[in-house]
## 1
Amino acid sequence: MENMTTETIHIYLIRHARPMVDKSGFFSKEQATQYLQEYSLAEVEQVIERSEHLPIDRIKKVFCSTLPRSKATALQLFGPQVELVEDVTFREFENRIWGLPLGKFPLLWWQVTSRLLWLMGLNQKEIESFKMARKRASQAADHLVQEAETAGMAVLVAHGFLNEFIKRALKRRGWRVTIDGGRKFVGVTQLEKSR
């Protein structure tokens, strides 16, 4: 007779809340670089409502990156009583502003151009390469799988790009995406697997 005691384990990937930094107007290369630095250190907006998909009462441990926006979001969502595990493995993929310092452009232009060049391996001077970042996301996925297999669930509050590549790594390991929060602020992606 088939064993009917299969258990479903879960991993929750949550993107941080919106950082409180002004990105309106036109930016020089220097101003765009300054914006990236401010974004890394920024406080986040108040989280108005928690996702109904999070089993808040069962969450005792939360992983987050070492960047302030990730930690602040985790504390808002889960409170000071939760065990918060900060880990550099969960930091966002790095970016550096690329381009000649000629003229001013919308911030999105600087960010997208710089990120695309980084993805192509052409803008990684003094920062982690895309190849290294993907490898780190895979290690992060392994870390979360280990936690989920031990505790029944793993919860991570981190960043848009990193979470996307962790999700891809988990899917390759046989995890199913049951809710996809995408890259929106405080978006929750839920993955599950039977064991």
## 2
Amino acid sequence: MPDGGLIRKMWMGEAHKYRDHLLRLDTESRTRRFGGGVSDDCIRDYVDTSMWFDTIVHGFFVDGMLRGAAELRPLCGTVTKEAEAALSVETEWQGHGVGSALLERTLLTARNRGITHLHMACLAENRRMQQLARKFAAELSFSFGGVVGEVEAAHPTPLSVVREMVSDGHGFATAVLEAQSRLFKVT
């Protein structure tokens, strides 16, 4: 992970940071994230619906700026034991372990919510995402120009719950301290 980088859960009030991150993605990264070309308006509409109570977004922040994100969205509402994961990392931060760290945090969160199957879809030419999925023992199936990776999540344990709580607490405290330091710099 790059120095100064922090991964933490995002809050509903930070939807604008998620939107701005997705809008900063270059054409290739945007196509990989959404499985095709999408307009700025499409991204704005997507973010308006993605920051709901059942979706968890982890962000990779550098100096308070969101540079990568992993979205965990339950399939068929909150009752199911299946979810999908989607990752996006701005070009400058790719190849530094950010995607691995985001997916690892997403898998922990899925595990602690009783999600047993995590689906990750990508384009057939998205080798980087396929390698990342394989790193976490995903089974890949190829069809219609795309690839679907499926990961079976382990059952939650007291240790996995504590790991998530500690990560969340650290992320929250760091975010508060960052916000305070930015306020002091302005005044």
